[in-house]
Write a structure and sequence with these properties.
Chain lengths: 493, 85, 563
């Protein structure tokens, strides 16, 4: 079996496993099946990346040759994102067992089945080379995600899920409208084929409208300010494990789809000219960086605080995109990867606290530094990464982002990035201050250190944050290859 | 506590010490007058005993200036910052 | 970071520190002495050269650059770590020991850093570790002071990073040699270095925080932070004219504010500012003699300032008091502390035969050779002021003067031992300055022990003493604190913010009332126009989400389709 034939299994394995999972009773087996499926998927993604960085892999489903049949087409850009998605899921699952047992005590078979569906949906989006197929997988993953969020123990989870459903559906519909326009104009759905045929018809309003619809649709899923309003509630009220998983993957995949369309399908020399995309994205990115960080500084609920911080971090990625250069795109991909590392670690640490204490409010963090030193130290160290302290992964992506801004002579962006980093210090510091410098009120229950099943995955991620802050070969190499794949060669065979 | 005794003894002889000190200082100025200046990079290096005069004036100036600065502008009660922190 | 002929001293220290939390009692005390000795051993073996190259983000890092200048600071930092560790042997708080050693390791990391990225990493680590030496005092005052310390240095760190990034962008390298960029990179890096060198008006973190640090922690702090900054200035900014004037101003600023201080360690902290002023002025003069003077003055300063802080710390440790107005007459009870402190005092005052004399006179001489009359006079006034407050006023009011009624014991043996070692080194360097001069990068063409230098210095000091005796009753003091630049962020800033805050809130309220009215009208207009979608339209968040979606789409469409 060649790598090309193996590649689709990273989507199929979780998809099939989800059917099995839905039927399994009890608490152990659904989790175990999910774990095995996820790890398999991650291993396949890891094997694919080096191969895809060399040549673009193409796999035709059912032996129908593209552009008629559905094609899976993988270059460095989507292999990188696929590895991130599958990898984060694989790292998060060992952590999930305890937390899910606590927060979703019943019908875990269905829960894990939804998780696997969401995972295979996200992977399908990244790997697929067919526009309509992307939409189908987007709907699969979105529907599964709504279900996952609705599992939250807080009753507001239902409402949050409902709002996300509305907005997610609007986003997906916009994507569909965009794809439909393109199909009308070109008569094809295959991305590579689209890229070839579009130049002939691209001076029409329909194609321009298609681009606008796709950007807004994906901007919604990406939670780009001001289309982010669904995200804070969804992250806050979802079960901790779902938040951990979504924070590292869902928005990243949406960003990938947006980039794939903007850069590969519509070449950047067209899409950034026909719409004032660079300016619009830059303004929205900067606004997101500031608004997200600003709101995060005042949130009493730490999960919500981190959710707003995600809005800000999405801003950094979009900022990298808006610079339209190899370095800028590299920075965006780097931050896509590194942000997944740091935010997952942070949400894991908070989830661990919630597991022990039962609440993620700032006031319940008071004095925890003494009784749960490992958990809170993990939080503080991952916080360093989000601030962007040297030796952490966060520094690497900010470094590239600043370089990209300087390359274009945009000094003020450097200043803005540094200011928002200072704001990150403020919101991380609030937690540290509560944990170590405030006494635990007598009326709150004392909490001991969390079980190792939660601590070890958290610390693995913290360690990864530092590893990828020092050894940048994999991340910078992968991100550069991804950026070049998007900006340089298009979808060359 | 032998050292404490020695210090005590020295303190009891403080007028003698003061005399010795004054003689020493006079000797220094005298030496400065007798020995020709090694350099005259600045005009005052030619003036014998300038350093002595300058040291005295500088010290007095610092004492009065800092006192003036404190009482005019800078002194506050010790709990000045307390109510805010 | 390790090759067969190079082991990074910071690495040794960090590795050794990891063991500290596992040890207790005697074993820990032994380890605390062995560790700095091991670092001294590693330095002994170090050969000049560049080591520990690493690739990072496409830049080459040099984690270990050994040359004469970095070795001067390496030697004295490790020595003061040994002295400080002995001084802290009785402390049963492992957090402080760990913090102090890691702090020392980062300071060594800075002086051996061959590039700006490595320097930045250790520079920040120095802040994060040293702040615990303040916080472990355990009082609310020290927590707040430590916090202000942290904030100022965090700002300094951002400034440094911004400077480094621009420097890299401008020159394409991050190697740390003389900073020959122009434009913002030059000024940003200089500003960051000046914050750590406590150049007024960026000095207030020092005099605010050091007096609130733990008794033993302050010894390390007095030695390391400002002197690493002096090192970076010598390396990066020799001959920067502005520094001559700032340095001379610093010496006077320090001695003047020291006269106003009532807390003994605050008084000594102002003298750090003053003494670092000599070094900064030397860097600004930039001649070989001046730079040698700055390096050697940093060396001697670390030893005698540690000695002074140890003496003051011993008094605080034994009496629990730190204010001149509450001390007095201690010579009967703490005579050894008194005598050892005086050795530090005469050293800082630059009495012949003591260490300050052989280094400070070098800087003063360099100013004279350069023909800078005004600078020379300013430095001379500062000399008089140094003697006046550290060696006359402080000991007089602490050990002599009015009896305060305190009856403390003599300081414990380990404190006295640490002070004795420092005092012996001060004396040794004073008698054999050649030992120190031999370490310097450039051969030293200067002899402190000529009749003319000797006569001038002795006249200056003794007549200062005369003035003090005659004017004793006019010397200021009393249970007061004096304002300094830190007022700006402790009182001025908050006041300004609360004033502007009120204004903003008022304005914001007015603006929002108008804007909200408009928005309400707009949404109701939308509702009227699009009809009632049942419950969906009424839920504000979804309505608002949809509104924004519509706005963004409309914006893109207007630009794209109907151009």
């Amino acid at each position: 079996m060649t790598i090309t034939e193996l590649m689709p299994f990273s989507v199929l394995v979780p998809l099939i496993a989800s059917l099995v999972c839905a039927l399994l009773p009890g608490r152990f087996w659904p989790w175990a099946v999910t774990l095995v499926a996820t790890i398999t998927s991650a291993v396949i993604a890891a094997i694919t990346l080096p191969a895809a960085a060399q040549v673009t892999l193409s796999y035709a489903f059912g032996n129908w040759p593209p552009p008629i049949g559905i094609e899976y087409r993988v270059d460095a850009a989507n292999a990188f994102v696929a590895l991130l998605v599958a990898g984060m899921a694989a790292v998060a699952l060992p952590w999930a067992k305890k937390s899910v047992d606590r927060e979703v005590p019943e019908r875990q078979g269905a829960f894990y089945a939804l998780f696997l569906l969401a995972l295979s949906g996200l992977l399908g989006i990244t790997l697929s080379g067919d526009a309509f197929n992307i939409f189908v997988f987007l709907e699969i993953s979105s529907l599964a995600t709504y279900g996952l969020i609705a599992h939250g123990s807080d009753r507001r989870a239902l409402l949050a899920s409902f709002r996300y459903l509305i907005m997610g559906t609007v986003g997906a519909t916009f994507l569909l409208i965009g794809i439909g326009f393109l199909y009308v104009m070109t008569g094809t759905l295959n991305l590579a084929d689209l890229a070839e045929r579009l130049p002939e018809v691209r001076d029409t309003s329909t194609v321009r409208a298609a681009l606008a619809f796709i950007i807004v649709g994906m901007g919604l899923k990406l939670a780009m300010l001001p289309l982010h309003l669904w995200l804070p509630n969804a992250y806050t009220y979802a079960p901790s494990f779902v938040t951990v998983f979504l924070a590292g993957t869902a928005t990243k995949v949406a960003l990938y789809v947006m980039l794939r369309f903007v850069f590969t399908v519509f070449a950047p020399d067209w899409s950034f000219v026909v719409l004032p995309l660079s300016t619009v994205l830059m303004i929205l990115a900067v606004a997101g960086m500031f608004a997200g960080s600003w709101v995060a500084m005042f949130q009493p609920n730490i999960k919500r605080m981190l959710a707003y911080s995600s809005v800000a971090q999405v801003g950094y990625m979009v900022l990298g995109v808006s610079l339209v250069s190899i370095v800028g795109l590299t920075a965006a991909f780097l931050h896509l990867f590194n942000h997944a590392l740091m935010k997952t670690a942070l949400f894991m640490a908070v989830g661990t606290v919630i597991y022990q204490v039962g609440s993620g409010h700032l006031k319940d963090f008071r004095g925890l530094g003494r009784t749960m030193p490992w958990t809170l130290t993990a939080f503080a160290l991952a916080g360093l990464s989000i601030i962007g302290v040297p030796l952490t992964a966060g520094f690497v992506s900010k470094w590239y982002l600043i370089q990209a801004a300087l390359d274009q002579g945009q000094w003020f962006l450097v200043v803005l990035i540094l200011i928002t980093s200072l704001m990150a210090i403020v919101y991380i510091w609030r937690v540290i201050e509560a944990a170590w410098f405030q006494e635990r009120p007598g009326n709150q229950p004392a909490a001991g250190e969390a079980p190792l099943a939660l601590l070890i995955p958290t610390w693995v991620l913290v360690a990864l944050n530092f590893y990828f802050g020092i050894d940048t070969r994999l991340t910078v190499g992968g991100a550069t290859a991804a950026a070049e794949a998007l900006l340089g060669g298009g979808m060359a065979p | 506590m032998k050292l404490a005794r020695i210090i005590e003894f020295l303190i009891s002889k403080r007028s003698l010490l003061a005399v010795i000190m004054l003689v020493l200082m006079a000797a220094l100025v005298l030496a400065d007058i007798i020995l020709p200046p090694a350099y005259t990079r600045f005009p005052w290096e030619a003036i014998s005993g300038f350093a002595a005069f300058f040291g005295f004036v500088a010290c007095a100036a610092l004492i009065f200036f800092s006192r003036f600065l404190g009482e005019w502008l800078l002194y506050r009660d010790e709990d000045y910052y307390d109510d805010h922190e | 970071m390790i090759t067969s002929d190079w082991i990074h001293p910071s690495l040794v220290l960090i590795a050794g520190t990891l063991v500290v939390p596992l040890l207790k009692g005697r074993a820990m005390q032994t380890w605390m002495v062995l560790l700095p000795l091991a670092v001294l051993g590693v330095l002994w073996l170090a050969q000049p050269g560049e080591y520990g190259q690493m690739a990072f983000l496409g830049m080459e890092l040099v984690t270990g650059r050994v040359d004469d200048l970095s070795m001067v600071f390496g030697w004295v930092f490790s020595t003061v770590l040994l002295i400080g560790a002995i001084y802290a042997l009785h402390v049963n708080d492992q957090v402080q020991h760990v913090a102090a050693f890691l702090y020392g390791a980062s300071a060594l990391g800075v002086v051996f850093a061959g590039d700006l990225i490595t320097l930045y990493v250790f520079w920040e680590l120095m802040v994060i570790t040293s702040v615990w030496l303040i916080w472990r005092r355990g009082s609310e005052v020290s927590f707040n002071a430590g916090f202000r310390y942290l904030v100022i240095h965090a700002v300094g760190g951002v400034v440094l990073l911004a400077g480094i990034i621009m420097f890299q962008f401008e020159t394409g390298t991050t190697r740390f040699d003389q900073i020959d960029a122009d434009g913002p990179a030059f000024w940003l890096i200089l500003a960051a270095f000046m914050i750590n060198a406590a150049v007024p008006p960026l000095h207030a973190w020092l005099t605010d925080a050091y007096p609130e640090a733990t008794v033993t922690g302050a010894v390390f702090m007095s030695a390391l932070t400002t002197k690493t900054a002096v090192y970076t200035l010598i390396r990066g900014y020799p001959g920067t004219e502005m520094l001559v004037w700032l340095g001379a101003f610093m010496t006077l600023y320090g001695v003047t504010f020291a006269m106003l201080s009532n807390d003994i360690r605050r008084l000594l902290s102002y003298h750090i500012v003053s003494q670092v002023g000599y070094m900064v002025a030397g860097v600004g003069l930039g001649t070989a003699l001046a730079l040698s003077g700055s390096a050697s003055h940093a060396f001697t300063h670390i030893l005698y300032k540690a000695l002074l802080f140890m003496g003051a710390g011993a008094v605080i440790h034994m009496t629990g008091r730190s204010k001149l107005s509450e001390l007095g007459g201690l010579y009967r009870y703490m005579p050894w502390t008194f005598v050892l402190y005086l050795v530090g005092g005469v050293s800082i005052s630059a009495f012949p035969l003591f260490s300050g004399y052989v280094s400070k006179t070098m800087i003063v001489e360099a100013a004279a050779v350069d023909g800078r009359a005004l600078i020379w006079l300013m430095l001379a006034v500062a000399s008089a002021g140094t003697f006046l407050s550290t060696t006359l006023k402080l000991p007089y009011k602490t050990w002599l003067g009015e009896d305060s009624g305190l009856r403390p014991q003599e300081a414990p043996w380990n404190m006295l031992l640490a002070m004795s070692i420092a005092a012996a080194l001060c004396f040794l360097i004073g008698i054999f300055p050649g030992l120190l001069y031999a370490l310097l990068p450039e051969p030293v063409d200067f002899d402190a022990y000529t009749m003319s230098v000797f006569l001038k210095e002795m006249q200056l000091l003794l007549f200062t003493g005369l003035a003090f005796c005659l004017l004793l009753k006019y010397v200021g003091g009393g249970p007061k604190i004096s304002l300094d630049v830190d007022w700006l962020y402790r009182r001025g800033g908050p006041r300004l913010i609360s004033a502007t805050g009120t204004a903003i809130v008022t304005a914001d309220r007015a603006v929002r009332r108008v804007a909200l009215g408009q928005l309400m009208r707009l949404t109701s207009h939308m509702e009227r126009k699009h009809g009632r979608d049942g419950k969906l339209a009424k839920s504000w968040p979804i309505g608002s989400m949809a509104l924004w979606t519509a706005i963004v789409l409309a914006m893109l469409l207007t630009f794209g389709v109907w151009r």
